User: Fold this.
Amino acid sequence: MIKEIAIGVALAAFIFLILQGINLLPLLLLGVLSYLLYSLSGMKVLNKDFQGQIPTRAQKITFADVGGQENAKMEIKEALEFIKDSSRAQKLGIRPLKGILLAGPPGTGKTLLAKAAAAYTGASFVATAGSEFVEMYAGVGAQRVRELFKRARELAQRENRKNAAVFIDEIDVLGGKRGQHSGHLEYDQTLNQLLVEMDGISTTDEVRILLMAATNRADLLDPALLRPGRFDRIIRVELPDKGARLQILKLHTDNKPLAADVDLEDIARQTFGFSGAHLESLANEAAIFALRGGDKKLQQRHLVEAIDKVMMGEKLDRRPSEEDLRRAAIHETGHAIISELVRPNSVSTVTIVPRGEALGYIRQMPETDSYLLTKQHLEEQIQVLVAGAIAEEMLLHSRSTGASNDFSEAARLAQQMVFAGMSYLGIVARDSLPQSLLHRAVTRILREQEKIVTEDLKGRIDILTTVSGELFREEKLSGESLRQFIHSGDKPSPKARLA
Ligand code: ATP
Assistant:
């Protein structure tokens, strides 16, 4: 902003002086000369910026501040024992551990683990991100790598420590496979420099450096980085399971006053697929809801509302037309009825309060975290997904674009079934399966599930009408009230269908 204003003022002054008839040639030459000098010293200037950015001293984060991730913690601790007790390692001739790579989805606590690792070894900690090394000036990235390691050593000396931990987040940005970037020479030089620095780490160094890095895409990294002697340990940091989610929720609500009705275990059950970062945000949003409502303590309803907020985004201010809301209520009720039918007690909320991109949505509650999906489970998920459009068709005799995302997801699941050998094609070779065959198998799965849902909803038109009317009036129904409606008019009971 300041730069733009300065350029504007300079230009105005320039034109004014020309209009006054003043010879500006010497001034112009001086300007060009200064610009050239500035460009040549560009690397230095950039480095100055960079110096301000690299070192982030770890606040006192310990492994106790990282919820779950027991495996990752154990592996890291085991790896760090060599650093903590380096004399023993030296006596046995063990070469120092040079690098630990933390690989896993975003927000799962990789940075936290790196900070905790630094604190565990009593090391100084400097953190940076891969993107900090990307510059269009040749050689700048490599120089920044050198600078990073130098700074880590200096910091450790200043803090009177023997170890320094260097953490590079998003290492895939600078450590991608060589020769593949468009401006690849610069990238390659930067990576080469990192390899050189890693090779230079030795047990006899005054300050021992441990490089830790994090990535969501370990598959993109150059093999040279991953070979033994560079990143010796690759540790998977996964999305938390239910127990870990509970631990993370406890950690992030520890500093917040909780009302007696708060059941964190229930929240942990409802948040399958959430990362640690999602859960941190959930706790924070719940506190904001409490503040907005003038409550002194966080209540369960604040936490439940925060799940929706984190999953679907902020409520929209604009109110859709009545016609759209009626259609959304029918659509969501269709999803909800089939969800309860295929898996009783699975709906936790159904709502037509628009949030983010969605006019309405149902939130399902997984019974247990499951990572392997059976054919039946996938088919049932497809049934739930297509039920919205079928409900619309039944009561309104037309479909809408509101179902597009449902269909994309249903097709994705059907495709997953085909590749897992669950379709009429049997076991298939994923890479050589012709598109037309894949299309035929996917369509057949979708048609079959559509037929089942149509039959199921046909027998429940009354429930569909009553519940969607209630949802339209109330805007939101809890799983319990939905089940009451269904059971009061449902014959036969949902369980009878499954038997
Ligand atoms: P990215 O890959 O996007 O860089 P990351 O895996 O490094 O993410 P962090 O930066 O460590 O994730 O986590 C972000 C925030 O989420 C943390 O500051 C913390 O508040 C919360 N968080 C994530 N995982 C955990 C966890 N296991 N325990 C407690 N808090 C967590």
Notes: The chain is about 55% helix and 10% strand.
